[in-house]
Each structure stands twice: as structure tokens, then as C-alpha cells.
């Protein structure tokens, strides 16, 4: 079973129903829900998702959505070393550097799922779009 880090953009595609990307995000979350893959986020992804959803919905509604999301996704740890690695990494996007090094430090993440593949060029972990990941995993299921 693959362990995947799901980036913020994929979660937002799902919650904001951004077509055609929301269909792929939905398929990815279905794979997590059926335990065919194990999905993870970071505290930063959770916080960013809250902030962006809060722009269009009440606090209680956003909290409810995040609680439901966490029934199918787990959370990776972040610590001082993760932040220092991200700061020193040369990644152009600090947030993506944080996600990358949290996944790296966890030691078991197989792939980062994002639509912003170019932001992870320095990653030592495989990076795929939801579309490419679903196409790849469908062949092995």
C-alpha cells in the first residue's frame, strides 16, 4: 500500500469543486477511504486549508469538513529540524519545502500528490499529479 502526502491544492480542488481537478481529488480520497492507499497531510496543510475555506464558510462548517477529512487522512509531524531543512533547502516555495521535508523525515512517504509538480523539483521523493498517480495506481489495483 502506498503512503502519499496530499498537497493543499488537491484538497482545495475537492472542497471548492474545481473542475476537472475535483474529480481526480475525489478519486484519490476514495482510494484513501477504501484503504487502498494511506493518505497524509501536514499541520501546515491543515491550517492553510482551514484559512482558505474560512473565506467562504463559517468556522463551524470548516471545522466539520476538516474533521471528516481526518477520518481518511493522517497527519505527519513537523518539528524544528523540518523547518530548518526547509529554510536551507533552496526550494522556491517555503510552504512546499515544509511539506517535502515533513514527508522526508517521516521516512515512509512514497509519493507527494500535487498539481504543482514544478514546485517540488528538489524533492528526493517522487512527485505526481493526482491524474498521473491515479493512472499509475489503477494499473496495479
Structural summary, described in words:
By secondary structure, this protein is an alpha/beta fold. The chain has a single domain, classed as 5'-nuclease (Rossmann fold, 3-Layer(aba) Sandwich), CATH 3.40.50.1010. The chain is 52% helix and 13% strand. The chain has 7 helices and 5 strands; from the N terminus they run βααβααβααββα. The chain has helices at 8-15, 21-33, 43-54, 59-69, 80-87, 94-106, 130-138; strands at residues 2-6, 37-41, 73-75, 111-113, 126-128. The chain has a 5-stranded parallel beta sheet, with helices on both faces. α1 (8-15) runs parallel beside α3 and α5 (80-87) packs across α6 (94-106). The protein is globular and about 35 Å long. The termini are close together.
Helix content: 40-55%
Radius of gyration, in Å, reads 14 Å
- The residue-averaged pLDDT reads 96
Q: Output the CATH homologous superfamily.
A: 5'-nuclease
Order of helices and strands: EHHEHHEHHEEH
Question: Summarize this, please?
Answer:
Helices cover 52% and strands 13% of the residues.
Describe the SSE topology:
Elements: E1 2-6, H1 8-15, H2 21-33, E2 37-41, H3 43-54, H4 59-69, E3 73-75, H5 80-87, H6 94-106, E4 111-113, E5 126-128, H7 130-138
Parallel strand pairs: 1-2, 1-4, 2-3, 4-5
Amino acid at each position: 500500500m502506498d503512503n502519499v502526502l496530499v498537497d493543499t491544492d488537491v484538497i482545495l480542488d475537492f472542497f471548492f469543486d474545481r473542475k476537472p481537478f475535483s474529480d481526480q481529488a475525489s478519486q484519490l480520497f476514495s482510494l484513501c477511504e477504501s484503504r487502498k492507499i494511506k493518505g497524509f497531510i501536514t499541520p501546515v496543510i491543515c491550517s492553510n486549508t482551514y484559512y482558505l475555506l474560512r473565506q467562504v464558510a463559517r468556522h463551524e462548517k470548516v471545522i466539520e469538513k476538516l474533521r471528516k477529512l481526518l477520518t481518511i487522512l493522517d497527519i505527519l509531524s513537523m518539528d524544528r529540524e523540518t523547518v530548518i531543512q526547509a529554510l536551507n533547502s533552496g526550494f522556491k516555495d517555503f510552504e512546499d519545502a515544509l511539506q517535502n521535508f515533513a514527508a522526508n523525515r517521516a521516512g515512509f512517504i512514497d509519493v507527494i500528490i500535487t498539481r504543482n509538480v514544478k514546485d517540488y523539483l528538489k524533492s528526493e521523493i517522487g512527485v505526481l499529479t493526482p491524474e498521473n498517480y491515479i493512472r499509475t495506481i489503477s494499473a496495479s489495483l
